């Protein structure tokens, strides 16, 4: 009760209501991230390109000769470069408006529509599929930037690890649930009276519909808040956004702890992303498992990661996010070390590796998000999270380049995946140097009970 008028403080109840709505942002977008970007799009696009030029033919784009099997990598790389350029500008624009939930829903809506349009990808039209996927992927990342920037607005500093972790768990649950349904549809396509191609196209359509439908909940239930501490710049919204972005980049030197964390995050997150991206190749090419077995293990990882994210959130409440993230990094070091000796064609050790990845996967990333939010000055949430995602995507090729070079030198995926331990060691050492107390104080945020 408050002292004046004995009116109950409804703040915690209102935050809890918004937090429950916010969880569905992860639940919604994960359908695209798992079913489309994670599993189905790349092999299907390769088959479409092969239909156009043959398995050993070449696609010619802007003077480049591209093998069909390399096309998804080029598409994702182009999307990554564009996102690194666009996201900071989008973040600056978002912090100048009270309509972040509307921007969240807008980007999600366009991304969901583009995802649904992949249903029409058939025959030989690889260019159509490539362009539509780039739009969906860019909008998916922009929606994540908006969702992350809302996190500090709907939670106190002490609540943030829990809220971020539960949101991540929702993402794994939602994405895994739809992926399981689509996995069954693709696997049983003959029994359902459809071709493999139609089953894949229907799966991508379902991801777009899922994404759009569930995003209605956060759009309706998250409050519109007036912007805070925006840079006073004259001109159009676009001009003012560039001015705000430039001011933020200059202002970043006043928050050295936030910058230090971003550098640490780039290393250990690049290691995480490369392990996930190369896991299916490692399972099929190095360990000799069928693609169905690897996909089943992917589903297992999704399921375990849901509980891992919640468990890491609870551990952070007791020990602090930084310590728990460091423990997760040590776990990743152990995983890539075990990859050196895990036996081929032995299912149980492979499944145990999947369980271990699931335990540390969601929790490490969820807590990195909430931990970074402590170093963001109020009113600049979207800008700082756009830098967080832009720097992540802009350097995400370091790990894959290392993986590829080591494989080329050794002709084995075991040392290639073990080489990623360098990213975890460097990221962990840099994270150890992050001064949490100073970062919170510099940003003007409240100190959580446990850091």
UniProtKB/TrEMBL annotation:
What Pfam families has UniProt attached to this entry? ATG22
| Cellular localization per UniProt | Cell membrane
Stated membrane topology is: Multi-pass membrane protein
In terms of one coarse class, where is the protein primarily found? membrane
> Is the keyword Signal assigned to this protein?
no
Gene3D superfamilies xref list: MFS general substrate transporter like domains
Keywords (A to Z) from UniProt: Membrane, Transmembrane, Transmembrane helix, Transport
| SUPFAM superfamilies reported in the protein's UniProt record | MFS general substrate transporter
- Residues spanning the membrane: 21-46, 71-90, 102-121, 127-147, 168-186, 198-217, 252-268, 288-312, 324-344, 350-372, 384-407, 413-432
**Which InterPro entries is this protein grouped with?**
Atg22-like, ATG22/LtaA_families, ClC, MFS_dom, MFS_trans_sf
Q: Where is the Major facilitator superfamily (MFS) profile domain?
A: 257-451
User: In which domain of life is the source organism classified?
Assistant: Bacteria
PANTHER family in the cross-refs: AUTOPHAGY-RELATED PROTEIN 22 (PTHR23519:SF1)
- Provide the protein name: MFS transporter
User: Organism, per UniProt?
Assistant: Nocardioides humi
Upper lineage: Bacteria, Bacillati, Actinomycetota, Actinomycetes, Propionibacteriales
